[in-house]
Amino acid sequence: MRRGERFYRFRAKKRGGGRALPGGGRGVASPAAREAIGAVATGFREFGEELVSGDPLGWPGYPEKLARVRERTGEGESVVVGEAQVGKTPVVVVAFDFRFLGGSVGEAAGRRIVEAFERARESRRAVVSLVATGGSRMQEGMRSLVQLQRIADACVRAREEGIPHISVLRGPVTGGIWASLGSSADYIIGVRGAEVAFAGSRVRGEEATEGEAFTAAGKLRSGFVDAEAEPGEVPGLLRSAVELLRPAGGEPPAPPEVPRALGFARPPRDPWVAVMRARSPRRPRAEAYLEDYFERRVEISGDRAGGVDAGMLCGFGRRRGRTIAYAAQNGTANTAAGFRTARRLLELADRLQLPVLTLIDTPGAGNTAKDEREGVGTAIAELFCTVAGLKVPITSLVIGEGGSGGALALAAPDNLWVTPDAYFAVISPEGAAAIVEKDRSRARQVAGRMKLMPQDLVELGVVRGIARPKRRPARAIRTSYDAVRRWVVRGHSSGKEHVTKS
User: What domains, with CATH codes, occur in the chain?
Assistant: First the structure.
């Protein structure tokens, strides 16, 4: 216990083994902590019940208010913590009870959250936070506010030890807890319709513009949460996320297998044909490769800095019993937000010791004035550095256009492969023609000098090899019954000559 903290013991009423309390029957969106827990987890075992706040400021009427809310809710504090299972995966749960003074966090609630992260580190379990809070508790003043620092410290220590944190924003989620616990999670699910904002509606005032910016939907659109779901959809999504992001252990992971080529079986002999193949709208794109490669997957979204790029698909998938992180370009010119989302994905994979697969398919990075204002060059540089510093293995496959640095930023330096209907070049043929020949119309001729075909890349030592195509099913043999019978009889007869009697 830190110096100056005061906690009082509170004997909670018996609650029937952790069964859900009345809270409107809204499942995970319920204001009641235990109902939310019951909607997503099983086998809940509470700890930290003895930690309850006193009255550090001598706030008039505060002790009586605490007594009334404890009697009404049956809870000793605004946060309930314990161990449970989400699906078959053991987790540590942090659940806010909005009925308890608006889910506000005082000294004891902060201490409970910190203890939950410590338990997660000790037991190597993921943390699942079910957040519904108005922020810090006014009646405990700065003794309440400094809990944000302690919660952040607990999150960082867990992060350093590879403990994932998945957060469900039940709503409302405002104030310091959004700025310390909720928004720092590795994977964030927003319940549809939930208010999510740093400043709550009372703080913003009536003159503040209400709208999507203050909701889970707005946070998804701006890249601050990974998914938005209806309350009934949350348990399944959470189950998948927890299973895929469970803490790693044991031996370092092996590199991901190279995906099989889904398009042409053989590379072209003409460089311009290679370019046209890669640009064909009929060519299999990243989504087709991800569906073929993984049994199931969960996507992350956004760069956590206000941007989303639909042309950069990132997430985690299950393949043959193990989780693999992926970042896949979808054939468009990527923005700074896309490169930053990929960087976020790779950093998370590195912390969780997960191998990485990248799929390369872009004509190049965005080159508009907007891209420059958003720092696309800096974002690419950061991604290059992240790839260079990865401690987990990475496998990369060029599945379409490999356009300059925007494509190379996702490439494994020593484990890069290419499909038969892809190319990789220092710049687009049109760009090269404009620079070298000062005539973009000479792109086809210039392409012939660029050594950009798959077999050229192998010869140059840039890629390790060309991905093998998808195997075609064997064709059925059509023959008559009499023909098969004669073949069997002949084989049986000839076989008798080799039988040795004992």
Answer: 7-244 (3.90.226.10), 271-466 (3.90.226.10)
